[in-house]
Write a structure and sequence with these properties.
Layout: E1 2-10, E2 20-25, E3 30-37, H1 42-59, H2 64-80, E4 89-90, E5 92-97, E6 101-107, E7 111-116, E8 119-122, H3 129-135, H4 141-144, E9 166-171, E10 177-181, H5 183-186, H6 191-200, H7 204-217, E11 224-232, H8 235-238
Antiparallel strand pairs: 1-11, 2-3, 3-4, 3-5, 5-6, 6-9, 7-8, 7-10, 10-11
Helix pairs in contact: 1-2
This protein binds manganese (II) ion.
């Protein structure tokens, strides 16, 4: 099996610049999205630096988890060496694939989803304050939609010398449709709305365009990046035709913690009207235990 991938990114309706970056390469068999954060143009530098390092590491034969760890080092080193870039960081949700398996590496609150048959499942766990609060039973998913802490992430590339990378394997099945996206999509659209659109619009590029349009219609409060990857047969194995009733495959292991449900909040309450770039992503530092 192989993946056919469509990608789209948009600045949205509020932000002055697009700090998301993405990367798709059919030869390296990789797809990646990164959502950069930092003052002035530092967010763009962070996400682009991470993507460039990922590409270089994968081309050199590194495994996905190690390649993302090296991307962390690249962003951290660059941030440490330039006062204008200090404190910048980025999420990264990336995957490499072969004929049978997609292997996701993940840090932050960008997301990977799988649409398989009747199920639409978030494969990644958000490294965010609200996801931790939901997992701890302190707030509900509904409360998280309006929680003022919902833009705070607890893990990112570029912030510390080391980073823990989640690695998530998924066995591919014919007909699978993956979505990788930045939070500019999932803070504007609920998961069921995203799933409905992915089910209805089977043409990849049109689906990517429609998701971005829907997020902008809902407010477009942040940069929006979507990658849609469809599992397709290669010519040698199935002559380009997918089976009409794909054999059920084992679902991926569920995340250790319940992930925050996607939210729909076209008017983020902490967004001051006098700041066109608000709300800025903020880091949340744990107190030492
Ligand atoms: Mn974002």
């Amino acid at each position: 099996m192989n993946l056919a991938i469509a990608a789209a990114t948009d600045v949205g309706r509020v932000r002055a610049a697009n700090e998301d970056s993405y990367f798709v390469d059919d030869e390296l068999r990789v797809l990646a999205v990164a959502d950069g954060m930092g003052g002035h143009q530092a967010g763009e530098v962070a996400s682009a630096t991470a993507i460039a390092a990922l590409q270089e590491q994968l081309a050199a034969g590194q495994a996905i988890g190690d390649a993302i760890a090296e991307a962390n080092t690249a962003v951290f080193s660059r941030a440490s060496g330039d006062p204008a870039l200090r404190g910048m960081g980025t999420t990264m949700t990336a995957a490499v694939y072969d004929d049978d398996t997609l292997l996701i590496g993940h840090v932050g609150d960008s997301r990977a989803y799988l649409l398989r048959g009747d199920t639409f499942e978030q494969l990644t766990v958000d490294h965010s304050v609200v996801a931790e609060l939901i997992a701890a039973g302190q707030i509900t998913a509904t409360e998280a939609e309006t929680d003022p802490r919902r833009s705070m992430i607890t893990r990112a590339l570029g912030i510390d010398f080391d980073v823990a990378v989640d690695v998530i394997p998924v066995t591919l099945a014919p007909g699978d449709r993956f979505l990788f996206c930045s939070d500019g999509l999932t803070t504007m659209l609920r998961g069921d709305a995203i799933a409905a659109l992915l089910r209805t619009e089977r043409e990849r590029d049109a689906a990517a365009t429609a998701l971005i349009a829907a997020a902008n219609d809902a407010g477009g409060a942040d940069n929006i990046t979507v990658l849609i990857a469809d599992v397709v047969g290669d010519d040698a194995s199935d002559h380009g035709e997918l089976p009409s009733a794909p054999a059920p495959a084992a679902p991926p292991d569920p995340p250790d913690e319940p992930a925050a449900e996607t939210t729909a909040d076209p008017t983020p309450e902490e967004s001051p009207s006098d700041d066109p770039e608000a709300p800025r992503r903020r880091w949340w530092k744990r107190r030492p235990h």
